[in-house]
Amino acid sequence: MEFWALPPAEREHGFAELRARAPVSWQRQPESQLLPESEGTGGYWAVVRYDDVRAVSRDTERFCSGQGVMFEDIPADMLEASQSFLAMDDPRHATLRKLVAEGFKPRAVKRIEDGIRADARTIVDVLGDQFEGDFVDAVAKRLPMMTIMRMLGVPEEDQEAVLWGVDAAVSWNDPEFLAGRPPLEVVAKSMAIMTEIAFRLCAERRERPADDLITDLVQADVDGDRLTDAEIGAFLVLLSVAGNDTTRHTTSHAMRALCDFPDQRAFLMDDLDGRIETAVEEFVRWASPVMTFRRTATRDTEIAGQPIAAGEKVVMFYPSANRDEAVFEHPNGLDLGRNPNRHVGFGGGGPHFCMGAPLARMQLRTIFTELLGRFPDVDVGDATYVVGNFVNGIAGLPVATGRAAM
Ligand code: HEM
């Protein structure tokens, strides 16, 4: 945890050394806050190079998800309640993913673009003429929540509770978030809240169907069966967590980076509409908001010549792959015109590749176009990072100057 408490740029020194000297290395299991060591799963292979992350991601025959995808050891019932198809293998994975995938495809996202733009405009309008306070609270966390809650059909009065649940579900290593509470208690409460809301929504949508994902799920026919409320609850938790934190933290990291690289900011501002697309791709590479996913070897095999035994865990480190000097020129610099930019921020490819990528790209394009159009000089102070080994999070980012354009 000492390593994961370092700021991202300092962690990168460790990854750079591993990429150069031990690209597939055996590491001891990180301390778990949620399970005693005696119930832990032992060590794992750390995969830190770009090519190897892509190879592991794409080869589901050799590296499966069904035995867990979280880096840290987590109690089985919590995984059950939160991971849905993320931690399954095909064919079940494909069947369940298909139920919601349609709504996340580029064409479907295009259809909700106007709504997302209107939400982004509202977020920026509320800031007034002088943007003050915390960037995460006022901007970064707002749009992802508004979008995903609307798509799922979570009523406004439940949204803050779901958002707290999402925060709690990924912050169990963060002393600041826990504020003295035991991690297990906080995570259990988070699951209980989100599951309770999901169950209530399932009952309501069965009575009164609406035009939202929960309705699609209660009505879905899966090989002749209906999904159970628990399965729909796990869907809701997965989509809320995957759809909120990732885009939120990318927004915050990108804002900080725009202040750290003024020349890149000037380059972007010279043609905001024309350059925002490549900029967003670089924001995701830069932020790498999801840091780790795990697989399990299904047979004796090897990665880059390193023998791996059947049953051993393999963990992919996306921030490291996204700084791999063999693939990216100046990997530690922000290059908003980088093209091509084949980062693995959304995963290394294969059947689990991020389902929300088109949505996230649209949200990021929209929020930065609106924000920088209105506050071209907005400047933020030092970031406070979320401590943890799953999400590369920014908890706080004070706004230093934020006068609106005349
Ligand atoms: C910048 C924003 C985002 C980043 C960086 C990101 C990153 C990732 C990564 C790394 C994976 C795992 C890929 C793999 O194992 O190959 C993933 C999976 C997933 N993401 Fe995203 N994500 C983002 C936004 C979203 C959004 C907005 C949603 C919408 C709800 C979403 C939904 C999902 C889902 C459902 C999966 C599981 C896919 C599966 O197992 O088949 N993500 N994401």
* Distance separating the two termini: 46 Å
DSSP helical segment count? 17
Helix content: 40-55%
Number of extended strands: 11
From the helix content, strand content and strand pairing, which structural class follows?
alpha+beta
N to C succession of SSEs = HEEHEHHHHHHHHHHHHHEEEEHHEEEE
Beta-strand content = 5-15%
Q: Based on CA inertia axes, which overall geometry fits?
A: globular
**Arithmetic mean pLDDT:** 93
Which compounds are bound in this model? protoporphyrin IX containing FE
**Which strands sit side by side, in order, in the main sheet?**
1-2-7-4-3
Unreliable stretches covering 5 or more consecutive residues = none
Q: What does it look like?
A:
A hairpin with a 2-residue loop joins β5 (301-303) and β6 (306-308). This protein starts with 7 loop residues before the first helix and ends in a 5-residue tail after the last strand. The protein has a five-stranded mixed β-sheet. α13 packs across α15 (272-287), α13 (229-260) crosses α17 and α15 crosses α17. It has 406 residues and is an alpha+beta fold. It has helices at 8-21, 50-58, 76-82, 92-101, 106-111, 113-126, 135-140, 142-152, 156-170, 175-178, 183-207, 213-219, 229-260, 262-270, 272-287, 318-321, 357-374; strands at 24-27, 44-47, 63-64, 292-297, 301-303, 306-308, 313-317, 379-380, 384-385, 394-396, 399-401. It is built from 17 helices and eleven strands. Helix content is 51%, strand content 9%. It binds protoporphyrin IX containing FE. Protoporphyrin IX containing FE binds at residues 57, 85-86, 97, 148, 238-239, 242-243, 246-247, 250, 284, 289-290, 293, 318, 345-348, 350, 352-356, 359-360. Residues 57, 85-86, 97, 148, 238-239, 242-243, 246-247, 250, 284, 289-290, 293, 318, 345-348, 350, 352-356, 359-360 line the site of protoporphyrin IX containing FE (HEM).
